[in-house]
Structure formats: C-alpha cells, structure tokens
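Extended Data, record Acetyltransferase (GNAT) domain-containing protein
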Amino acid sequence: MSEPRVERFAGAAAELRGLLGRAFCDNPGMVATLGEERPTRLGRATRLMGGLSGMALLSGTVEVIRVGGEVAAVSLSYGPGQKPRGRALLPMYLAGVSTGPRALVRLLRLDEFLRTHHPRAPHFFLAVLGVEPALQGRRLGSALLRALSARADAARVPCYLETDREPAKRLYMRYGYEVVGEHDLAHLGGVRFWRMERPPARR
C-alpha cells in the first residue's frame, strides 16, 4: 500500500470544519464542554473546528491528505516561532462565542488549563489531528504524524500534543510520544487528558 500524500493546505477553513467537527464531536472533552445532545454538539464542534482551522491558516501550518480529490485528514500544527497573535486569534474567538455562554465558560476553563501546562521550550505543537470517521483505519493520521515528526527532527526540537482519548494516546505512543502528564479535570466532570511529547530523533 502506497504512502498517503501529505500536502500543505492553502484553502478556506470552511473546507475543513465539517470533517473535523465529525472527527471530534464524540471525544470526551467535546462532550464535556459542548454538551450531551449530539446534534447541538456537532454544530458547535463544527464551528469550533472552523475557528481552529482559520487560526492555523493565519499563523500555523495546515497539512491535509486527500482521497478521491476530497480532504480526508487534517493536521493543524505550530512550529517554533509560530504563535497565534492579533487578528489570527479572531476566528477562534468568534467560534468560541458562537457555542453559547455555558459552553464558552467551559472552553475557557479548558483553555486556561492547557495553556498553563504548555511547554515553554521551542517545540512543534500538534493542535489538531483529525480523519474523516468513515476513512479511519487507513493510516491517514499516521502519515500526517510522520510528516510532522520529519519537520521536528529536521529542526531538532520535540513535538507536543494533548489528547483526551485512550486509543489516540496509544497511537501516539507507537510514533515515539511519551506521556508527560495525566490529568483528570474535575471542572469538566473528570475528563482525562494526557499531555504527550516526542523527542527529536537522534542523528
């Protein structure tokens, strides 16, 4: 089986938000922040992912894999020196407000926690990695992970991410990530988050 082709994405956030909304809608963190009712949560997740995509398009790196000409997998990442500032933050602010006041408060609490524990040393940050649910299991996410790892290895800096899913944690561990923190967030009903880091490959 040939390696999926990873390409830089320079289109619009609207092309990515539906896929990412579907990919993340049922994650424990999404349920805890955006609500139990799935149709409402899916709409909120889609808008939120649109905001994250817009922010990454303005200030980070967006890579995709296409299947049949359509985007099937997406990664949003930030390298050393890539940090959302100024107008790059606007898509995320608008998306957060669109989720409603209660969800927004929960999102802000989660964001505060994640920012507090974010590493300060230079690194690549994998903010989002999502695959169209119907196409999961085809190693698309793995190809995106390898592409990020190659960039980090070339720069000789680690990669960092957070996940709220045990299967995702196991996937990341297969690609060299180590758990550097495990947290049960009481203000989100005890949802567990793992913070993970991958050291650069030795030369």
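Summary. The chain has one domain: 6-198.
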